[in-house]
Amino acid sequence: MIVRIKYVTVYLFLVFVFSLVLFCYGFFPLSFSPSTKSSITDLPGSLDNVKLNPETYKPRNSRAVLMVIDALRMDFIANKESMPFLNKLIEDGFACQYQLQVHPPTVTMPRIKAMTSGAIPSFLDVILNLGSPQMTLDTFLYQMVHQQRRLVFYGDNTWTNMFPDMFLRKGENVDSLYVNDFYEGDRNITSKMRSEFRKYDWKMMVLHFLGLDHIGHVEGPFSDKVPGKLKEMDSIVKEIHGAMEIWNEKFHSKSLLVITGDHGMRDSGGHGGSTHPETNVPLIILGNNCTQSTKTYLQIDMAPTFAVLMGVAIPFSSIGSLIDPVLNNVPHVDRLYAHYYNTKRMIEKSQVFYGSRLKEQEFFVQYKEAKLLHTMYLEHQDDMTILQKAIEKYTIASRNLSRLLIKNYIRYDMLSIAIGILLSVTTTVLTALLSLIPHQTEQIHLYPKFTKWIVLVTIGLIGKYYLQTFGEIESSLLQNSFICHALLVLTCTIFVINWSLLDGFLPLLDKNNHLTKLSLPGGLLLFGTIFHMLSLSSSSFIEEEHQLWYYFNNSLFLLITLIELRIMNRTIGQIDNAKTNEMLLSHCRRERGEFCISAMLFFVGHIMLRRWNQTGDKWQHIADVGDWLGKQENNFWLSLMLFFGLCYLLLSIVRFCGFLTGILSMTASILIYYYRLMTGIVRLWDIVPTKTNICLIIFWINLLEILLIGFLPKLYRTVMGKPGPKSSQMLVNVICVTLLLSALIHKPHNVILVASIVSSSRYLVERIDHIAESKTENLLLKIVTHVWMGKLFYFYQGNSNNLATVDLNAGYVGLSSFNFTRVGLFLTLNTFNGQILSYLMLVYHLMNGILREPTIKSIAVEQSRIIVKQSSLKLLSLLLMAPLTFYLIIVTLMRNHIFVWTVFSPKIIYDCFYTVLVLIQIIVLNFMFK
């Protein structure tokens, strides 16, 4: 069987994507938390030989309000000027403040799951956050409804998606992800809340305010809008407190107000990571005679504590401890009973993991001591010393249990991980061998044998049966379902094909040693690629990955520049020694002077861009140029920077497009500035434009016209069957549209980055064309340099391997409501803008290079086009597969590392998403080089 090389490359990449899916399926399983529900009949009736009365376990509050302020940081509460009423209550002892630690990922849906169920959500929930699937775990909300206690809800529609049938009345914000809504959604919640104050058919009201989080996403935690929003929240607390006094008189029982945040907010805005401001939120209890405490509790501790206060069964999935200072108004005997009940059920959960070794564990010894003290107190109920010791022992035991259960409740599917890694390793090796096949080779001969397939499938079935029967490994792939059997057959088929590919590659390998032919820039590229791959084994290098790319890119830029300068000096020296042509000598010297100036401007520009947006982890808090421009007093300079950035972008576009496209691009640039002027981000003297969407409508029409200019002629020639000249016009127009759209969704001060990618690409390509010793080296340097440059501009933009650096505001530019498709496209283009534009510029320069001069002079342009496409596909695939395969192995080995969920896992999500983008790039490459 004869197969084309380009199809083999696409096949290998698809197999790599499949292996990545298998790995992620095994590495990111949902937390082991069954959907079993607790029952009030599960309450313990005895303490060893001492009989207990479960009927004393009853509600301690007549009704409760759970007020969740999205992205409420600890330091926001300390601002007495912004929240004077709440701080006065805390100072006077009418409210208690505690600190909660939040587990990453710090996004809304997993945090709601943790608060209500007491379970640790899976890290994969960060992806499910957009969809907010229905909750199946047991929660204190379910327990209250099960006991006919009605609930009402107003706020983030994440709650209504997770609990669709839980609330008697609900008013959700249908556009919760629309981050430009600072006030309207919260005002609607407040209005609905006030109407509920006059109704007495509910026992608990949940409120989830989003305005503070939206301000954080758009302007950061130090925005001048934050104090006003906190004052608004403070006034709402005051209203609820006033209503509580009325309820207390009516029900003759204390009502309860719980104020907390689902997660915090990082200093640069946004959330999703593991920094201290993101993972530490306040918990404020009002109306419960609680006591203050400086200890740090876990967010999952809210579920069992709330269940005790409301007198319902603790959720079955809860692995949290009780926050004892909150239970201060509970009678001492009942307080001890609650601690015993929660600790006992956690001991039963730990039985699954420890079996017969359970009684040897330290926490079990503490549990036994707590029970002994509990029994002594029941005999001597006036001895407060015994009471405090018993509570302390129960608390220590439950907190230790909680830590151990958190560690054991995330289970990896090691079989899926192993198969995924094995497939990725074999695919990477085959891609590396494919890259060593001479570029003139277009086809290979494959001889897949059916007997090999039969043997592998048989071995797979026997291995599956053995693991099911005798193995101790747990894996969903071992189930006897159609999908599992289909995956087994598919995996065996892939291994057979890979085996055949290996047999086909080996005879075609170029026997010459390519590494010995590498020039100095090529050697630096090889060393940098290998060093980056090895650096992925360190959490510090992952957190500060931008430093590595800054160093290697700048080293490469400097090396290329010095090599060309050396060539120029050598040429001038030869001409000067020959003393033949003074005019030629003068021209060469002038050319060298112009080159030195352009090189100096290039390096100065990149030095400035490096300080444009602070990224990473260690220096994230340090103010950067973007922070300075974002201040209100520097609005003039921000306006000037946007104007300069758009002019620079327009100049870059005009240099490689036609007259009509240039005119449309200029109009689009004016409309971008007008839109930012309309939204109040920048200014133009004292002009205040009318707020209308007409400017964006015209902008989209402009982009459509630019696309049609490149597409219609090609469509006409295709329909009419007329051969046309080979050109890159269509690609040029696609680049123009991408550049203009990027300028629209970027932050105003980042627009200059868009134009800088174009000019940097042009500068590097010109240098490479001058210094490359062969066409093969020319192609290699251009591809790897553009891949590196894409990474460089990714970090220039302020991105990192932390999920919190995703700029959600970019997804809503020009939108008045949430649209999944448009928001997703905008966020993708904005986040990976550097890689996308670098790739498009690479394709443009490769196409232009082919049209000017074939890659190999002895062959035709069409043949040269095929060679460039094949070489690009092979090299791009290898540059992605090798580091990612190594990283998957490292992450598997470090799956018990302390930073596995805070550092290593977020990068996997970024790399998986970027892998999909590379797949799209491969499709585009095939299309452009047809």
What does this molecule look like?
Helix 16 runs antiparallel to helix 32, helix 19 (520-535) runs parallel beside helix 32 (861-893) and helix 31 packs antiparallel against helix 32. Strands 7-6-8-4-9-10-5-11 form an eight-stranded mixed β-sheet, sandwiched between helices. The protein has a two-stranded antiparallel sheet with strand order 1-12. A two-stranded antiparallel ribbon has the order 2-3. 61% of the residues lie in helices and 6% in strands. The chain is globular and about 110 Å long. Strand 6, helix 7 (157-162) and strand 7 (169-173) form a beta-alpha-beta unit. It is mainly alpha-helical. The protein is built from 33 helices and twelve strands.
Strand content: 5-15%
User: Mean pLDDT across all residues, rounded?
Assistant: 84
> Which structural class fits the helix and strand makeup?
mainly alpha
Biggest beta sheet summary = 8 strands, mixed
Strands ordered across the widest β-sheet: 7-6-8-4-9-10-5-11
Separate helix tally: 33
Rg value: 32 Å
**Number of E strands:** 12
Query: How far is the first residue's CA from the last residue's CA?
Result: 24 Å
Helix proportion? 55-70%
- Overall, the morphology is globular
**Segments where pLDDT lies below 50 for 5+ residues?**
855-859
